[in-house]
User: Which sequence fits this backbone?
């Protein structure tokens, strides 16, 4: 219920104005977002890489409505990738891209063209791109664009969401050699017709999908903070004899950093998803919807009104 209310608020421009301009928001945002600009993204990436983590960077922004916005997002990724290369932060750092930020909603072809330019820039500095997955109305279009991109850039990563009923089948399609697939639970509010609604069903689906990916020929990227699912991931890695070069764990910046360090200490590859940029509202609201403790953190910041 609370999750639905917060996710509904994430689509409200009135609530957005209220939250975005509130003084306390800055402190909350700082916990989950690297900062506003490319320099912040590079600084945080350097810190994480020095701690033995790999990184995927997300330039915040989604639901772009004009070609100019889409071009600006593409250009920011091109700049970011060039600077990551110059700083020696590739291949440890790659980028995550939302096709909606590249114009998917109004012009699929230009979203593809923009994504292609980003993939080419990533390849030029020896790294990769992962296409984030958004709400279910975009899944087919995103997987179509992924398939086209993979013809020229086979290491382009996909994201599959365990809450969608279709995902086991998508996992089977994508568990092929060289195919990088991030498996997450899914962060959007979806109708029962397409998505499991209870946490238990989502978790069970995650495990089924994890088994398909870990027993297949691709490169699974297990994106979760859930201790039970992480333990199952570790177990399946042993069972399927997958060393640290054949799969990875992924977690979000600011969430369970001590667990990220523990896994690195155990010898696993762990990638931290680092968002940066001004357009943090939708991202922050999804993080708040996921976990009551994050809401308590938000409430404390409101109460102290720093
Ligand atoms: C790297 C990465 C990329 C992602 N990309 C996408 C994407 O492209 N599309 C998409 O829809 N979603 C994406 N997500 C979000 C994802 O779908 C989930 O919404 C999000 O990860 C929360 O699910 P969870 O698996 O962590 O489990 P949850 O059900 O949120 O949490 C399960 C358990 O994990 C532990 N836990 C969680 N948070 C904390 C915390 N702050 N401190 C301590 N323990 C905690 C608790 O024990 C909790 O009960 C991504 C997530 C990650 C990590």
Assistant:
């Amino acid at each position: 219920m609370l999750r639905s209310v917060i996710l509904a608020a994430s689509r409200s421009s009135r609530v957005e104005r209220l939250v975005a301009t509130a003084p306390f928001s800055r402190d909350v945002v700082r916990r989950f977002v690297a900062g506003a600009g490319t320099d912040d993204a590079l600084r945080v990436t350097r810190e994480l890489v020095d701690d033995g983590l790999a990184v995927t960077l997300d330039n915040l922004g989604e639901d772009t409505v004009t070609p100019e916005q889409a071009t600006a997002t593409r250009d920011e990724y091109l700049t970011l990738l060039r600077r990551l290369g110059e700083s020696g932060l590739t291949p440890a750092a790659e980028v995550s891209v939302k096709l909606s930020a590249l114009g998917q909603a109004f012009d699929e072809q230009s979203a593809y063209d923009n994504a292609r330019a980003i993939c080419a820039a990533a390849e030029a500095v020896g790294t990769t791109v992962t296409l984030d997955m958004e709400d279910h109305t975009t899944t087919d279009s995103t997987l179509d664009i992924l398939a086209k991109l993979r013809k020229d850039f086979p290491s382009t990563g996909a994201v599959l969401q365990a809450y969608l009923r279709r995902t086991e089948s998508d996992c089977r399609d994508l568990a092929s050699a060289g195919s990088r697939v991030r498996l997450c639970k899914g962060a959007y509010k979806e109708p029962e017709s397409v998505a499991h609604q209870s946490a238990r069903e989502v978790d069970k689906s995650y495990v089924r999908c994890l088994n398909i990916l870990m027993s297949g020929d691709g490169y699974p990227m297990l994106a979760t903070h859930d201790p039970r699912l992480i333990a199952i991931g570790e177990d399946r890695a042993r069972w399927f004899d997958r060393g640290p070069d054949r799969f990875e764990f992924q977690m979000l910046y600011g969430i369970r950093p001590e667990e990220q360090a523990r896994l690195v200490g155990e010898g696993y590859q762990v990638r931290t998803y680092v968002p940066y940029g001004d357009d943090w509202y939708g991202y922050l609201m999804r993080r708040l919807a996921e976990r009551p403790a994050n809401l308590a953190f938000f409430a404390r910041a409101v109460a102290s009104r720093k």
